Amino acid sequence: GLLLDQGCLKKLCIIMAVIIQPLHGLSTTSTMPRHRAIIPQMRSSKLFLASTAGNEESSMKPLTVVIVGATGQTGRRCVEQLSGQSNVRVVAWVRDRARVAEAGISGDVEVGEIDVVSSSRESVRDEFQALGKVDAVICATGFSPSFPPDPFGAFRTDFLGTAKLLDAAIDAKNVDRFVLVSSLLTNGLESGQALNPQYILLNAFGGILVAKNLAERYICSRVGREGALTELTYTILRPGGLTNEDKEGAIVFSGPDTLFSGGISRDKVAAATLAAVTEKTACRNKIIEIVQDTTASSVSFVEGFGSVI
């Protein structure tokens, strides 16, 4: 019975990919880089502060970081780790302002109620332009399965919403960095992981990983195609299975389609995301997979990001 169910789900995922992916005809390049790891020796918020302290321009003018999906489990941790820092202007974009207090967002955080999925590309662009110079946009949005099921929810949120956010950031011409929090196994069909239980499970809820894969491909294609026309650069982080609790082990860094299992705490994902904002040279236009491993050795974020080709 399990084999039959997996076969059916595999066919469903393949059908979705065949129907959706040719709409864009985009591709990414897979590499097999050396694995690296890090155990942060301080709280990630302090790490972020330390990484910008030596930059004279940053010390004179605060960095502006927009976190989209700020009330989500990962987004709120990014906000928390940045809040209260004198050198960072934190802007939290949320779909529902009523959830801000529940997410623990307070203090000097600027909150904007913006539903990227339902908003027009032009209106999102205008929101970016109203902020002045934006050093980085962190996209921590994601579709949450609901009842009754929404078969196209993941496609609208994880693909179309992310693509619109990127388009608006490029159109605004004032955004330097785009950091996407994605997931392991997004390219499962092409990397031989169609029967991986996690790939089957997540795609059973409206093709979540297929939609995320389309978003990744769109980002790589759009920035790559227009690299000469925009200064915006990207980093795509693919974390393993997420836990709300702290987890033992260093962070292992690897290139796309090289890690197919493993977990990582959301706090560590937030730390890596914020490091991707400041260490932009080491992770410029890269897809980086991250999990935690108790047997991994410790290196810096710069070295870990830099080890991925």
From TrEMBL:
Family matches, as Pfam families: NAD_binding_10
Domain annotation NAD(P)-binding: ranges: 69-279
Chain segments annotated as transmembrane: none
Name this protein carries in UniProt: NAD(P)-binding domain-containing protein
